[in-house]
Design a protein that fits this description.
Layout: E1 2-4, E2 8-13, E3 16-21, H1 34-46, E4 54-59, E5 64-66, H2 71-75, H3 81-99, E6 105-109, E7 112-114, H4 116-122, E8 126-130, E9 134-136, H5 150-158, H6 160-169, E10 173-174, H7 175-180, E11 186-188, H8 192-204, H9 208-224, H10 226-241, H11 244-255
Parallel strand pairs: 3-4, 4-6, 5-7, 6-8, 7-9, 8-11
Antiparallel strand pairs: 1-2, 2-3, 9-10
Helix pairs in contact: 1-3, 5-6, 9-10
Length: 264
């Protein structure tokens, strides 16, 4: 399955979808219809993609995952504070929607991921970075702040003190520096997309209900605290106890064969 939208490409096969940000002449920056296209890719196409088990999010080429907002395009906009406040609600809904998407999302950061580009990557469950990638939230240098969730998602990954330092100084991190603070979980010397696809295929082999509930349980604890997380964990474990996939997993283990999961 392949669909080309205005600023991205959606491709899927064997349970794994690849969403590729596709504005290479503008370093895959956020402009044009990219926000609308991302919303359609995740909440219409991927949501209705039968058999989907995992999504990989990347950018065209090897220069940029996403360089952030298209500054040339943005500089021509004139918005009042209230207008921006209302418009940004849709951006936050997009980021939260990716965070809470039913299937795992892996960001294959194939080049620079700055500003809004990094904020998109922060919405993923797993982040791999190419060895030459650069990452950062440099908005304060332009008299702004990260406005697509970065002030909330980055501290939850690297701690409040480190997040503040990175934002206050508009620092650009190397891939290795990002790995050292837990911003990414792997640095890849070769093809970061290949590495992400390998992990995505491993996830696709797992029982989808268990993966889904594991993701939701982690998110519940990170967003609502440990008590809320434990409460959801107990609920999720109970929901899975009598599922077809759990019974199949146990049978396959006893019979020493590969399980066949159906997502029920």
């Amino acid at each position: 399955m392949r669909e080309e939208l205005g600023t991205l490409i959606y491709e899927s096969a064997d349970g794994v979808a690849v969403v590729t940000l596709n504005r290479p002449d503008r370093m895959n920056s956020i402009g044009g219809t990219m926000k609308e296209d991302l919303a359609r890719a995740f909440f219409e196409i991927a949501k209705n993609d039968q058999g989907l088990r995992c999504v990989v999010l990347t950018g065209t080429g090897d220069r940029a995952f996403c360089a952030g907002a298209d500054i040339k395009e943005r500089a021509e906009l004139r918005r009042t504070g209230p207008e921006y406040f209302m418009a940004q609600k849709a951006t936050h809904a997009l980021i939260r929607g990716i965070q809470e998407f039913e299937r795992p999302v892996i960001a294959a950061i194939n080049g620079v991921a700055l500003g809004g580009g990094l904020e998109i990557a922060l919405a993923a469950d797993i982040r791999y970075a190419a060895a030459h990638a650069k990452l950062g939230l440099p908005e304060v240098r332009l008299g702004a702040i990260p406005g697509a969730g970065g002030t909330q998602t980055l501290p939850r990954l690297v701690g409040a003190s480190m997040a503040k330092e990175l934002m206050f100084t508009a620092a650009h991190l190397t891939a290795q520096e990002a790995l050292a603070i837990g911003l990414v979980s792997k640095v890849v010397e070769g093809s970061v997309l290949d590495a992400a696809m390998e992990t995505a295929r491993r996830i696709a082999d797992m029982p989808p209900l268990a993966v889904h509930f594991a993701k939701r349980a982690v998110n519940a604890g990170m967003q609502g605290g440990i008590d809320a997380g434990l409460e959801f964990e107990r609920y999720a474990a109970g929901m899975l106890t009598d599922s077809e996939d759990r019974r199949e997993g146990f049978r396959a283990f006893v019979e020493k064969r590969k399980p066949v999961y159906v997502g029920r």
